[in-house]
Each structure stands twice: as structure tokens, then as C-alpha cells.
Design brief:
Layout lengths: L1 H5 L1 H6 L1 H17 L1 H15 L5 H50 L2 H6 L2 H44 L1 H7 L3 H38 L1 H6 L3 H53 L5 H42 L20 E8 L9 E8 L4 E5 L6 H8 L10 E4 L2 E2 L5 H5 L2 E4 L8 E2 H5 L8 H10 L3 H5 L8 E2 L8 H14 L4 E5 L7 H15 L3 E5 L11 E6 L2 E6 L1 H7 L2 H9 L4 H5 L9 H7 L1
Parallel strand pairs: 3-10, 3-11, 6-9, 9-10
Antiparallel strand pairs: 1-2, 1-4, 4-5, 7-8, 11-12
Length: 599
């Protein structure tokens, strides 16, 4: 039950609803004593041959009125209590989603999607049940149980009540034993469910690879094995669950037998009447519900406690990138100063970046290239503060350290086109306008034209209203890449961080898009990561990274003369430059003035 203490902050938010529910439960418990007491009085009057029609109708009316009152009050406490638990689950889901959105990429590299989804579904459901059904059974068993016991003591016999309750200490011991076992088995069951989730997600998301490599049968076997493990773990929980009710009923039955024997002895000695003993047995029958709930609440609380422990570990995850407090001035220049002493990923055996010094002037065009794994994408992510800087490194925008800036202030200054484009569910227009929801149709179409995809969208049956499947799977890789580029161009950001945005494009489309960028967006500061070196011919400065360090830097002509990696790769790709001459200048869409007004 320590879960309620841990969740006290959430419960306090809805304390009014809990108080109303508890008061209603208490009144219901008191009213529940009336029918049994009135039935005992009727039996005593029958035994004494004093029963009249008026007396009978009066007592039956009292039973009916108490039943109607209990009906109304039960509606009150259930609506208030379950309403509060649903509201707590809503707040928890909101907090969990907020936590997910603030954790850095390094966290997601350590945790599987299936595990996180299990947190957001099964674990939250178990916590919701603990704050709803768990609290209900706790309060109901405590209030109803104590109320009935007091009724047994003060209305019937304290001596008979003491005898009837003799077996119940055994109930507390056994329930605690079952609770400990349930905590262990349910924890294993939740972990196995997370594993099962991940197996299903991985197969569904990679279904094309599964089919193309003909490994469907292998995946089925893997899933079947995981399913068996999950079933076994849940069966262990079910076995502990199944033992609760029979154990409680056995102890309750023992109490009933003792009560009948001792009650008969008391009647034979004239210490209580038959009517009072009838009332007592009815009260004892009413105790079965609270004591069944007493055992069941341990089940609910243990499940909730196990799930909350898993959620607590998630909530306690340290946010590696801490938001700053400074707001970047609206007139701040789009200059970027980079000084990275060194940067390493967690548990990596080598440094991802080292001794990186760059300065990008406002409106400047800087190219970043180098072999695969040289740290190019990492550099852009550090500028965006996807990871925290290390070892006295610094990155600043117009002299303002990025670590001191609010996330909104920093990221509204920049537009990022990731190496692997990601599209959300919704229409094409909604995806382009993601960073600028109030964009006009004209603005959306303009940036689509700049990204070289407008004609392809217009050719679709629903045009810009075409609905995208998960991850944009109904589009080609090049189309997804250009939609992501159009999204970045539509934003009001002054700095464009382009991480290999042309890798999925054919050469002709690539040249058209590049020329559109030059003609319409040259006023923006641009950092372009690419391995297609013709894209960097007009860059103000080019940096060649190798194993996390700057190996070469300079203009295109400087690097050609240097006869290093850049020169060697460029010569291999140089034959592709002839394509540029075949593309007429009319293919360039828009003008610089148009781009300024729309972007």
C-alpha cells in the first residue's frame, strides 16, 4: 500500500473527490447495518408471537428505504472514486509523454520501443486500477469491515464477536505472503510483456525486410518463443491470484463454523436471542465481502506497486540536456561559433569529435563532408543540443552559448533536415506545415516547389491533402526527403542544418533543388552535410572530418589543390558534374525575393 504514499501528490490533486467517496462509503456501511438489525427484530417478534402487520410493514419499509439510500450513495462514491482514478491516469500519461519528449536520443538508444509502450499501457493501467479499485477496496473493506464489527459488538455480543474473529490474524499473515510472491511474479510478467511488444513492433516495422529475406518462419518461431515465455510468466501470476479467494473463504468458513457453535451455546444459556443471533450471522455474512476485498486489494496494490516502480525508474531518468533560461533576442545574428574540445557517446570506445573549431558567418554557406562515421551528423546534433557538450566545449549563436538558451529560443532559430527523414500521420500539407501550422496554402506550395516535389504532389489524386501512412511509407525515400526539406524551408529559422538532404535524390533533381536553395535562400546561414561533393563547390568554406577531427578545410579550390581526401573523392564524382550543364536555368523555381517573403 506504499504506492498510495508514493502517489500522494497525484491523489492530493483530486482529494475532494476522494473525500466525497469516503464519506459516501461510510454512510453506506452504516446503512448496511439496518436491514440485518430489522430482520433480527422481526424474528424475535415471531418467536414471542408478537408480530403484527403494522410492525412487519414498518420494518420492511425501513429495509426498502435503506436499500434505496445505499443505491444512490453507491452511485456517488463510484462516480467520484473512479473519476478521480481516471483523472490521475490522465495526469500520469501527460507527465510520461512530457518525460518522453524531454529525454535525449542517448536514452532511446538504450531502451526498446516495446518496453516504453508497455510502460505507457500496462503499467499505467495497473497504477490506475490501484488508485481506483485499489482505493475502493481498501476504504470499503476498512470502513465496512470496522462498521460491521462494531455492529456485531455493540448490537449483538462482544464475546461472540471476539470468538468469530479468532481465525483472522492468520488471514493477514497469508495475504502478506501471497502479496510478496505476487510482487515478484507480476514484475516478471510485465517485463516479458515489454519483450513481446518489442518483438511484434520490430517484425511489423521491418516487414519488408522480413518478406524480402524470407525469414517469416524464423520470426514466427522467435515470436512464439517469446509468447510462451510471456504466457508462463502470466500463468505464474494467475496461480498466485487463484490462491487468494479460496484461502480467504476457507478462513471465513472456519470463522462461521466457530460462530455457529459458540452462538448456539449462548442461545442455549439464554445469553442472546435467536433474533440477535440471526442478526449476528447476517453481519458475519456481510464481513465476507470486506475480507475478500482485503485479500484482493493486496493483489491490486502489488500490481500497482510493481508497475509504479517501473514507471518511477523512468521518471527518475536524468535529463541529460538541461534547458537554459535565456531567450535569444529576435534580432540576434545567425552566426554560429563552434569550439568542441572533445565529445564521446556514452559507453563508446572512442571519441566521436575532437578539436573541432568552426565559425559560420550570418548568411554563410559551410559544407561538412568526410568518410562515413566521421562525426558529421553528431556535429549538427550538438548544435541543436540533442546531446550535452563535454569537456569545456562551447557552441554559441551570436555570442550566446546554446546551453544558456531555452529550447524554443534555440530551435526556432534553426531548421534541421535529418539524415533519416521522418513524417507524421496526417496529410502532406500538415507535414510540411509542421513547424508553422498557420502557413497559407500558397506558402506550402511554394516551399514544395523549392524542394522540387510540387509537381509530384499535384499528380497525386488528393494532391496536398494526400494522407500519409505510418512514417510516410506510401512515399519514396526521395519524396520523404524533399518533404522534410520543404518543412525546414517553410519555418522562420535563420539557420538551416541540412544533414545529407539529397542522398535519396537523382542527380537532376538534386541540382534543381540546390539551385533553388541558392537563388531563394542564400540569405540564410547554411550548414550542409553531404558526401556528394559537387554540392559544395560554392560553399564559403568546407570542412573535411575524419575520425572525429578536421582533416582538411578551405574553399573548394583550396581543397582540390591540397590533393587530399576531398580532391580524390571529387575527381571520382566529377563526371556527374556534366549533368549540371544539361539542366536549363528555367528549371530554377521562384526568385530570391519570393523566397524571402515565403520562407
Amino acid at each position: 500500500m506504499n504506492i498510495l504514499w508514493k502517489l500522494r501528490g497525484y491523489i492530493k490533486m483530486f482529494s475532494r473527490q476522494y473525500i466525497i467517496a469516503i464519506i459516501a462509503l461510510q454512510v453506506v456501511a452504516l446503512l448496511s447495518l439496518i436491514p440485518s438489525w430489522l430482520i433480527g427484530r422481526i424474528i424475535d417478534s415471531i418467536s414471542a408471537n408478537q408480530l403484527t402487520m403494522a410492525y412487519l410493514l414498518f420494518h420492511i419499509g425501513g429495509i426498502a428505504l435503506s436499500a434505496i439510500a445505499m443505491y444512490g450513495l453507491r452511485y456517488v462514491w463510484q462516480s467520484q472514486l473512479y473519476g478521480a482514478s481516471i483523472a490521475i491516469a490522465k495526469v500520469l500519461r501527460r507527465d510520461l509523454f512530457k518525460k518522453f519528449s524531454r529525454l535525449s536520443p542517448s536514452f532511446y538508444s538504450r531502451r526498446s520501443t516495446g518496453d516504453l509502450m508497455a510502460h505507457a499501457t500496462n503499467d499505467l493501467n495497473a497504477v490506475e486500477e490501484a488508485t481506483g479499485m485499489g482505493v475502493m477496496t481498501l476504504v470499503d473493506s476498512f470502513i465496512a469491515g470496522l462498521t460491521v464489527i462494531f455492529g456485531m459488538i455493540f448490537i449483538v455480543s462482544g464475546e461472540l464477536t471476539a470468538v468469530a474473529l479468532l481465525p483472522f490474524p492468520l488471514l493477514v499473515y497469508i495475504t502478506k505472503h501471497y502479496g510478496t510472491n505476487l510482487h515478484k511474479t507480476f514484475g516478471r510478467a510485465q517485463a516479458s510483456f515489454a519483450h513481446l511488444n518489442e518483438e511484434a513492433r520490430e517484425t511489423v516495422s521491418g516487414i519488408r525486410a522480413v518478406r524480402s529475406h524470407d525469414i517469416g518462419q524464423r520470426q514466427e518461431q522467435r515470436f512464439g518463443k517469446t509468447l510462451d515465455e510471456t504466457l508462463e510468466a502470466n500463468f505464474a501470476v494467475a496461480k498466485v491470484d487463484a490462491a487468494f479467494a479460496p484461502t480467504i473463504q476457507l478462513i471465513y468458513g472456519l470463522s462461521f463454523v466457530i460462530s455457529l457453535a459458540y452462538g448456539a451455546w449462548l442461545i442455549s444459556h439464554g445469553q442472546i436471542s435467536i433474533g440477535l443471533f440471526t442478526t449476528f450471522t447476517l453481519y458475519l455474512g456481510q464481513l465476507l465481502g470486506p475480507f475478500l476485498q482485503f485479500g484482493w486489494q493486496f493483489n491490486v496494490f502489488q500490481r500497482g506497486s510493481t508497475s509504479w516502480k517501473r514507471l518511477e525508474a523512468l521518471f527518475s531518468e536524468k535529463e541529460e540536456v538541461v534547458e537554459g533560461t535565456v531567450t535569444l533576442p529576435t534580432d540576434a545574428k545567425a552566426t554560429v561559433d563552434i569550439n568542441i574540445v572533445s565529445f564521446s557517446y556514452q559507453n563508446a570506445n572512442r571519441r566521436a569529435l575532437e578539436h573541432i573549431n568552426m565559425k559560420v558567418d550570418e548568411g554563410g554557406f559551410v559544407g561538412i563532408t568526410g568518410p562515413t562515421g566521421s562525426g558529421k551528423s553528431t556535429l549538427l546534433q550538438l548544435i541543436l543540443r540533442q546531446f550535452e557538450l563535454q569537456n569545456s566545449s562551447s557552441i554559441s549563436i551570436d555570442g550566446h552559448p546554446v546551453g544558456s538558451l531555452t529550447f524554443h529560443s534555440l530551435r526556432s532559430k534553426m531548421a534541421w533536415v535529418p539524415q533519416k527523414p521522418f513524417l507524421f500521420s496526417g496529410s502532406i500539407a500538415e507535414n510540411i506545415a509542421l513547424a508553422k501550422p498557420d502557413a497559407t496554402e500558397e506558402q506550402i506550395k511554394h516551399v514544395a516547389e523549392m524542394a522540387g516535389i510540387k509537381s509530384e504532389i499535384d499528380a497525386m489524386p488528393d494532391g496536398f491533402n494526400t494522407q500519409l501512412r505510418e512514417g510516410g511509407s506510401n512515399l519514396s525515400g526521395g519524396q520523404r526527403q524533399r518533404l522534410t526539406l520543404a518543412r525546414a524551408l517553410l519555418s522562420d529559422a535563420d539557420i538551416l542544418l541540412l544533414d545529407d538532404p539529397f542522398s535519396a535524390l537523382d542527380i537532376k533533381t538534386e541540382v534543381i533543388v540546390r539551385r533553388n536553395l541558392k537563388a531563394n535562400y542564400s540569405h540564410k546561414t547554411m550548414l550542409l552535410v553531404t558526401q556528394r561533393l559537387p554540392n559544395l563547390i560554392e560553399a564559403d568554406r568546407i570542412f573535411v572530418l575524419n575520425e572525429g577531427q578536421i582533416e582538411e578545410q578551405g574553399s573548394h579550390h583550396d581543397l582540390l589543390a591540397n590533393q587530399g581526401w576531398y580532391s580524390m573523392v571529387y575527381q571520382r564524382q566529377s563526371q556527374l558534374n556534366t549533368v549540371i550543364e544539361d539542366i536549363p536555368s528555367e528549371s530554377i523555381q521562384g526568385s530570391k525575393s519570393e523566397g524571402g517573403s515565403h520562407a
